Amino acid sequence: MTLYGENRPPADDDRPTVQVTAVSWPVEEPERPAPVAPQGGPNRSRRVRILVAAGVATTVLASVGAVAVYAYVGDVPRGTSVLGTELGGRSRTDAARELQAQLDRRAAELAAPIEVRVGERTAQITPAEVGLTVDVDATIAAAAAAQAHAVDRLVGSREIEPVVSVDVPKLETELKKLVGKQGRKMTMPAITFAGTTPKVRYPKPSLAIDTEHSAQVVKEGWLRGEPVTVPLVENHPATSAEEVDRMVEELAKPAVAKPIKLTTDRGSVNIPPQAIAKGLRFKADKAGKLTPSVDVKQLRSALGDRLDAVEVAPKNATMSISGGKPKMVDGRSGQQVDVSALGDELLAVLPRTDDRTISAELKPVAPKLTTEKLAGLGIKEKVSSFTTNFTGGLSSARSQNIVTIARHVDGTVVLPGETFSLNGHTGERGYAQGYRDAPVILDGKLVPGVGGGTSQFTTTLFNATYYAGLEDVEHKPHSYYFSRYPAVIESTIFWPNLDFKFRNNTEYGVLIDTSYSANSVTVSIWSTKIWDSVKTEYGPRRNITSPKTVYLDPGPSCIPANGSQGFTQDAFRVIKKDSKVVKREKFSWTYDAEPRFICAKEPS
After folding, report:
1. Region (Disordered) spans which residues (predicted)?
2. Among the residues of 30-91, which ranges form H helices?
3. Which residues contact 580 (CB under 8 A, 6 or more apart)?
């Protein structure tokens, strides 16, 4: 063994010096006598051997290369087939063309309906109707991506499953039809309250198809041309019946066992169990997991006016008419309990039997209507006005009711797009609100009733909004015609069933201004004038009926009446702008003939 730098060859040896590092040779056998070298010497014999060996190696390498070229020619490995069709050695384009040709040959077979069984029911599903197809491009891509050893590519074979597509929603629809009444929806767990008593609904599993699994089963059966069985699978809610019982015992029952004390910087209030029950919710998600929460808005509503002890209500800016011009008065901010953080605090103390106290911050609350907003509403001029007359002076109970409701509505601002409800604005009109007994129509006759006369104000308000061109949402004329009102264009009201509503269908604010005298009430609408004119055109009265005479038992509750004719009439609201009619709205009503009521016994 010769190492670099040791036992250098003689200087007359012109062979190149070879550097050898870290080489280990096998032990050689004893050297045998060498045969007589042929002519040319030993060097020539050695070169012959090297050349022969090199030739053999070259031949082998060339053969291997040829094999490799043969095995790897094309995009799809040799020996690869799909649906029994050999695609190996082809380009993707050629393979796709060949596979499509095979599919075309099997078109009738693949288009044949599939027999599908779900539970006890069987039906035929047409492949085309559910989008069953072989995705040729995806299948060829899968075939081309198949990895194989070179020898396997040369002599082996492999079958690639075709990639099948299906319209899952359509298939699901067809399978659900087949399920029919065999299936059942999941019964979600629930905990509710009847008063302060928890009521439970225990969960039950659904019985339905598994969409993803069903699609795979149908795709496989379609390719094989075999009947398919799609199983019905039970799916249990995430919350069990035992967990529902645990929630009742650990949360629902103790939650409403005692009040909760709510403390603020302005004092404290008690939240009674009834309010807790209305605010505490147990909601199940789509998986049937039941989770407790507190609906703070519902809780606030259930508390009613209890929070008035610790809150300061915001006050809106107001507008009134002074000296023939609108005048604004500033509002003020208020303070309200910040309910956004109450939910988690309540859930933390509801399971407790003691130490049931939570604290809340009071946050500033701006008024809904500020002077800045009010100033930008375009309330600048009188748009319409309407007056009705009453008798008896301001001392009568009926007149006092008209004055009371007029004061309540005076100065109301209706924002663009908002709907005004007279019942919603005044609330119940009872003795506590300052209303008195006066004649009202009940069951077809005049009887004493609290709030009598408010229909006259309603008619006045209706006409003011009508002639302002505002949208009529709800009104109902009287059953009988009263000459103090315009026919058809009038409205009654009764708490809580009969209401009057109009919508501000303009881009400007609307101010309702009311005033009264000893014998009349007036409503004016202030805004920005849009229409040139709003007028009423009447059709003739028709279907006229005469009143009958009715005798009533005399007494304090009997109110006589002269009676009036009944009739049907049409009224048309005609709205003009730029001297052209832009709207023509029809209003129709049929009045009953009001009987002539006589408070006396009927003559024999």
Report:
1. 23-43
2. 42-72
3. none
